[in-house]
């Protein structure tokens, strides 16, 4: 690889273009404000992206000309960097580090991936006003055009067109309005962004194919936006704007919404707004991406994206029964998002019945037979789980295994006729908020796109129990229903492939093995925070036979990641002490343990995390832990990434840890290569043993086929690619 001097000589002319981005361009996950609770951490996306925050107009004393001049500088700088990324990937990463000072506050932490795409999340001060101006590269400075020609000459990219993906981030940002105006500005801004997306797309379509043969022709292409909708007191207003945007084919890569404020809990209008929001967010209609004004250029990992790439729900307090009904009765038919993150707050419920009710509704909305057949959900993240006891898991399993879960949810008698799907006739009256001894409310649907589920039906009563998305249990006249037979559900296992469970520290976890045994068969990615000391890693892996990556977090361990899909040996035992880094390092030094060879990433913290952290961090314990980690690095050649956080007094260890940075280690052989190799042997084994004529190559293959598993493992290890290990040590 070329050194810094080479890059400076070849690409140093772009240093001045990088300065406008200094400390404005970060490689981080997008951070949402969260629920606003003091005991909550802010939610951050797991996959970091290059994120640029544009300056505010206030920084230029509202001087529009000066502000636009700065906007153009940043726009042109990003375009030049993206062009360098196209022609020289190593130079692109050099410029980000040396001249843009990306993640400047993380000295010693080199966290760029091997391949870093030139895609950007852009946080505008006023997105509605500035998106069109920012994306207009037609009006570029002479200096920019000359610099782009130099990039093309050095990289051989002349005559190429380059689409640069950006995602607009719309949040509260630096907006400073009165409390009365804030809500209005935030929600109105969403509609403004949607209109700007349309203008940019129309302009892009006009310019499509126009390329200058002497340079690299760039244009910014909008991917679905990121929206963080917080501090909006009216759930109803949030619901109305979201419903309008989704119906009008506005797409989002991420939406974070704060819902169910404590003051609005008993407000009928807010409850209606919450239902409306759930119906919109988890619409059962799958919309065509071709109708969107944005498009994905960067790799999303999905061949067929949905309208809400990821949805984050931040309740300000535990959901009540009505909110649970609204959420999960809509989610079971969801065709809008594949990724959902939400907060449980089960530790705040004051009785076991409510906690068990939450687990029942979760089972119905995400894991039931109906959910497996009808919902597009593939990834679920649950935070603030107060307990995962055997009793709670039993409540969960009762719904999971039931052919008539709706009757169990509402403790209704078994119907005399089979459950059925149904639709409403125009003008049908629906009674909702069905409570014993209470007066239900009524609503009339002039038209209805919902698919309802009948249950506890005796086949003759005038009123029929139905589950309505967003409303839960309702009553509808039999004469106003159009019945449809329920098709046989063919899926026999959960469709979720990714699950994250964030349990509170000290939460009961004795029900975790039973939960994973029931739902783990389809999981490929599993993250558990605070798994407790009850469960051995091997138990988790046995419950999840198709698991590829397991990530565990607890105590002093901020992340321990195992790539279990690469293992070649039987499952072994691996117990971990989350609050003893010295013991953990000794466990990870045992290279005779097959599971240790699966550990790819380790992050440990030997410094106080916050004021509530009461751990001792005695100097002698920290020293023993650091020494043990160094000894582990000396023998463990499978760990690809180590991150150690310490207080500044231990900086003397920096050089020792950095000695292992960029050490070449064995990364293993990918599954596709192993299958290709074994398939050749398999073909040879099928050859007729009585055949008299064989070629020399065939004899070699037959000998390979006779090798046992240990020999094959050695062959795979020899053929494995070598990668540089990353070691980060910082205070």
From TrEMBL:
Q: What is the lineage of its organism?
A: Eukaryota, Sar, Stramenopiles, Oomycota, Peronosporomycetes
Q: What name appears for this protein in its UniProt entry?
A: Uncharacterized protein
Q: Which organism is it from?
A: Phytophthora ramorum
